[in-house]
Amino acid sequence: MQSDSNPTNLKRVRGWILDLYPSASGQMSIWVITKSGKRIHLFDEFKPKIYISSRERDLERLSTRLFANRLVASSNLAYKYAGSMATEKSKILEVTLRNHKGVSSFAQSVLEVGKYFRYQLHNCDLKSDQAYLYDREIFPLGFVEIEVEKEKLRFRLLDSIESVDYQVPSLRVIRIHVDIAKKGKMPDFSDPLRAIVIYKNGGEMTIDTGDEKNKLLQLVEIIRRLDPDIVFTRGGDSHVFPYLARRALLNGISERFVLSREDVSMIARHKHGTTYFSYGKTYYRAPTRRLFGRVHIDEYNSFIQRTSGLDGLAEIVRTCRVPLHRASRSSIGSSMASLQLFQAKKDGVLIPRRKCIPETFKSAYELLIGDRGGFVYEPRVGIHDNIGEVDFSSMYPSLMAKNNISAETVLCKCCPDAKLRVPELGYNICANRVGIVPKILRFIIAKRLLYNRLKKEAHDQKLKEIYNKRQCALKWILVTCFGYLGYRNAKFGTVDGHISVCAFGRHAFLKAAHVAEKRGFNVIHGIVDSLWLRKVGATTREYVELCREISSKIGVPLNFEGHYKWIVFLPSRIHSNVAVLNRYYGIKRDGTIKIRGLETRRRDTAKFVYDAQMEMIRVLATANDSIAFFKKIPDVLNVVKEYKRRLLDGKVSIWDLIITKRLSKNFKDYRQKVSQVIAAKQLLREGVEVPAGKNVSFFFKSAENKYYERRVKAKELIKDCVNSDIKKYLLLLYLAASNILSPFGYSKNDIYDSIKGHQRMNLTSF
């Protein structure tokens, strides 16, 4: 449906907002799912606003120049907080533009007029659809009542982001899979289409009759008839939709190849994805392939969908006011930033074009004191019986919310004598106002706690799963908020705030450890927000009482995570006498196995090695204490023997030997011929794009071959009959075994000797 105005037969609509995007000049397209199940396309007049701050005479001079600017609809002077650090409103210039397309060029022209220093721009880099949501104070999948006029909509929100029992519309969901008749080793845009499979409600429809043109038009007709709201693909952004659009162009039906609800054909154009760096890792995001009126979710390009499903995604778009198609692809930090931007808009605070909060000057001593991160107790390497684990719930977010830590509150100018001070550093924290970051964190923390309580109280299993997925989505916001506070591009971030959180965290952690020691517990290990404690004969009740006392003294919830029958803290792989903070495995009394830092937790572990190590740990998990643990070691070695036999007998599938690694930089920048680079070069020769941040899958064919090209084979180039490097995979198997037994004197060579039948050592010596 395509129109220049709203349907004349509609006066009032009640329903859920599914999709929105800018359309004609000065208009926003809105798709609504009504209570009766209709999908309605509406239009609303919307002109973006940006703000300019400077000296008053410079603003007046600029205002006179705007009358002749064809991009400007109107301008006037207003009073706003010109940034989060401002304590008083100041006079600024509010400029309303004719449409969203003119924002970038107008902002650039103002900067050039002011020689890039005279004028400060605000709210100029907001996405137009998000700016619309902020302005109307609505959110995607929110239930609203809309009064429909000729070119305007008036919203009445009948929903709330605070709600935990909200209803989402019944969404029509399909999945699309494309089967390509590839001519070479890799599928290419020049290869013909063999078939298209559409999955819906557990059933499937296959389009495999007629010529290619007919197949594509059949897809268009089926999409029109099914009229889905959500279209899932695997690789839709990077390959499926670009391929289909290309085939439509070659068959001369580009204008008829419409998969959107709006009459917009899919354009066959080549776009490059984005490589970005986050938390020490390089990632790659394929360019978005957008549907209008529907939501396309690429499962290979959607973190939230993978971790929390549609229920978690719905929670994110409602809470953070981000359109569905963007929230499914953007990082969780970007979604959280949207929530901060809305809170700023709500508080009348203008959003700066660039982050403008510098770090305060620090002496060498202040840097030494402040820049230390979280506190840790090094673990005692080896096996320990009857250990209890206690864990702070969302420690850093809770400290940020409790202590009012935000860019505008730490070292504020308005109350230098404030009573609340940062431990060790002595920084003052504002007592006159609550910061933007603490405001949103208090809301998120409270809502997540409520979801967790409802999950425990719910009797319906389906409802339990929904609450769990929603709280999981909110958990990622809390996980991200601390790092985002120190992120260089965070609009409301600050390094001083970041190190202040660490200082509060160290103070709380040490206080918790001291309270535990006073109650007779010994600290076996501690890292940032978790403690592993031992007390002879301690009951669950004693641990719960300890958590209650610490929580009341610190103001952050401390939870008892469970009793371990035994837990093994592992040493460094290189230095056997050096403890590693986050490498351990153990079995709780309820049968739960907890593992950190081993192959089973790594994404680049072959399934063969993963399965072997998990079976070894399950064998050990049958032991109730350390004495029984040692008696199980021969059984672990038998597991190694069995997996070795399977490999030598050819009973291991080649697909279970696949290893996946991420390219941390462009493969041309690597100096060493590491495995993923060799595989990436093989793919490049077949016409496959392999930018930095992309995952590359391969298996070892001849790991020590002097011709490095023959060492590995890319997964996509594997044929039916291939030989793997048995020696290499046996080495990985022995290494996985030695990693869990390393505290007890086993190296990979010892594992090899043991399964060969050589006498190892007297286990009773342990």
Could you explain the architecture of this structure?
It is built from 20 helices and 26 strands. A hairpin with a 4-residue loop joins strand 2 and strand 3 (39-45). Among the domains are: 49-125, Alpha-Beta Plaits, CATH 3.30.70; 372-406 and 494-597, Palm domain of DNA polymerase (Alpha-Beta Complex); 635-765, B family DNA polymerase, thumb domain (Topoisomerase I, Chain A, domain 4), CATH 1.10.132.60. Helix 13 (495-518) crosses helix 14 (540-554). Strands 17-19-20-18-21-22-23 form a 7-stranded antiparallel beta sheet. Strands 3-2-1-8-9 form a 5-stranded antiparallel beta sheet. Helices cover 35% and strands 22% of the residues. 39% of the residues are buried. It is of the alpha+beta class. It is globular, with a radius of gyration of 30 Å.
